[in-house]
Specification:
The chain has a 4-stranded antiparallel β-sheet with strand order 4-5-6-7. It is built from 6 helices and 7 strands; from the N terminus they run αααβββαββββαα. The chain is of the alpha+beta class and 231 residues long.
Length: 231
């Protein structure tokens, strides 16, 4: 009985040992750093909310809608980097940005606008190094809709801000801390390409094997300390 339990425990341990180590290390890392720090939320510049009643000569919603040839599913007045903008969706998707003071369509954003939004959002110690419009083949750290502006800063964390050209939103903030977190997350859920799916058979199989390793380990402890019959 003891030999049988030991053999199962040994071979299961050899199979799942490295994955259990990956789960432990990645889990420790993910609990060590606050998620707000991983998301670089501490580098967001705090902007005082502006009072809409102080805004003068804004174009009306009707005039903003007139500039849209497609159907309008949402119309929102927003403050983007100190400028009032009409943000318009069509069929539930981002469609257009209009300067609410000048009435000009400013989307898709050009590099100057992307840099201005990034400068208004970033509160770190680095300086802006580059702005790149990514239309295809984005880096693994960005897994959202394209195209997107990537604005890079030369700080120690290699911060990157990602800005949607049709909404002016900063949709992602990436740093070396986030990249390490994301890599360890891929090891944790065993999805090494998309890093999103944790409902697949490899992780279920390894979880079951880890359960077997735990049960056989407990069994060995019980067998080790179980009172032996004297002859």
């Amino acid at each position: 009985m003891r030999k049988w339990w030991f053999q199962i425990h040994k071979w299961v341990g050899l199979i799942v040992g490295l994955q259990i180590l990956a789960w432990t290390v990645s889990g420790l890392y993910m609990t060590w750093f606050p998620i707000e720090q991983v998301r670089s939320e501490h580098l967001i510049r705090e902007a005082k909310p502006r009072d809409l009643r102080a805004a003068k000569n804004l174009i009306s919603p009707e005039r903003a809608v007139e500039a849209v040839k497609a159907s309008v599913s949402r119309l929102e007045l927003v403050d983007i980097a100190g400028r009032w903008m009409w943000r318009i969706d069509s069929a539930g998707k981002p469609h257009m940005l209009i300067d609410a003071e000048k009435g000009q369509v400013i989307s898709p954003l050009d590099e100057t606008e992307a840099r201005r939004i990034a400068a208004a959002d970033y509160a770190g110690k680095g300086t802006m190094a580059a702005a790149t419009l990514i239309k295809d083949k984005p880096p693994i750290e960005y897994r959202r809709a394209l195209p997107v502006w990537q604005v890079a800063f030369d700080d120690e964390d290699q911060t990157r801000l990602y800005i949607e050209p049709l909404t002016g939103k900063v949709v992602a903030r990436r740093s070396d801390l986030w990249r390490t977190y994301d890599f360890l997350w891929s090891l944790h859920i065993m999805d090494y390409s998309e890093r999103e799916d944790f409902n697949h058979w490899p992780i279920i199989l390894f979880a079951l094997l880890s359960l077997a390793l735990t049960i056989t380990g407990i069994g060995l402890v019980v067998i080790r300390f179980w009172p032996q019959r004297s002859l």
